[in-house]
Structures are given as C-alpha cells and as structure tokens.
Request: fold
Amino acid sequence: MATIRKLRGRWQAQVRRRGMAPRAKSFDQKTDAERWARSLESELDRCGSMPDTRVAESTTLREILARYIIEVSPRKRSAATEICRIKALMRRPICHRTLSLLSTSDLATYRDDRLKTVAPATVTEELNSLSHAIDTAQRDWGIHLYKNPCKLVRRPVAPKGRNRRLVADEEQRLLDAADSGRNEVMRDLIILAIETGMRRGELLSLDWAHISLESRVAHLPLTKN
Reply:
C-alpha cells in the first residue's frame, strides 16, 4: 500500500515494493497524491515493475518535437513539409505542457481552436504528427507514459474531396495567366499536370534520367500510388 503523508505543507505519496527503489512525489492536494499512487501501483501490478515517470514529468512536448525533427523527420519522403509543420506546432502554447500533464482535453481544445483558422485536414496532420512523436518517445527514447493522449482525441471530419475538371475556356485562361506570371516554366508545368495528372511533388522531382523524349514517357520511380 502507498503511504500518503503531510510534509512541509504538501502531500507526499510514497510507493514501496520489495526489491525496487521507492518512488515518492509531492502534491498540493491530497486527492492528487492518492491518484498518482493508485496509478503507479496499478501499473506495477500490471507489468511487474515500477515505471519511472520522472522523465515524462520534466520533459515538455516541445522538447520531444525538437528531437523528433532531428532524428525522425529527415528519414521521411515528406521531411521538408513535416519539419515545417512541426516547427509551427512548437510555437503553440500547448507545447509548454509536460508529457505527463498533457491530456486529451488539452488536445481537444487545441483541435477546436485550430479549426477556426485552418482546414480539418491540416488539423488531422498536426494531431498525427504529435501522436507519432509521442509514440516514438515511448518506444525508442525510454519515456514512460500510461497512454498516448493523441490516440484518444477525435479527428475532425474532412469534407468530401473535389472531383472536377477544367471546363469551357478555363484551361486557356489559366495558361494565359501563367504567361503573364514571373515563373517562365509555369505554363509547361500546368500543361504537363493536366495531361498526366501528376502531383506537384512528382512534377518537381522529375529528373532527366527518368524522361524519354523519343517515346514521350516520363517514369516516376517513387510515387504515392
């Protein structure tokens, strides 16, 4: 059983088990001390060892994201996009939360606030990045959490995707606008995109080694589908 006692004006909870170093933590409220002790004991009964939550209690979400964009993001195809998204995330107030204090209500509030200014798909991408960063911290960096709160947060419903082709004189108007723009290759990019259905990233990553002018073929060695 845990020991709960008043110590220097605060409530201290202490959990002891034979063969393991004791764990203690102080709280302002007795109920918080009892809740912490119960969760620690239940985890001990479940896995047979006393989890060390001190790292999670002192590590902020921002610190996790900073490490993630150095060690994990560069290995992804979408590295540049993800790093940009996470750096923007790191400026949000929610990132000052420690991992142990980060709750589903914090994330739900963040989701609802962001939906006022950005599309649902953007919010979903941000929540997914947060979730994977926390998963990585749990699996690979030895940071113990009882659960990943991001996985419990409902994702916003995205609207139906658009299914539309250019009609009437829209293509010519688009090409005329490209001719008057500052980018001299924009017209060619638009024509190639219309004729092939290639994505922006696929167009911009084309290399001469993957193009045959004789057979009029562009080969995409790495594509989404």
Q: What stands out?
A: The CA atoms of residues 38 and 135 lie 24 Å apart. Strands lie at 3-7, 10-15, 23-27, 211-212, 217-218.
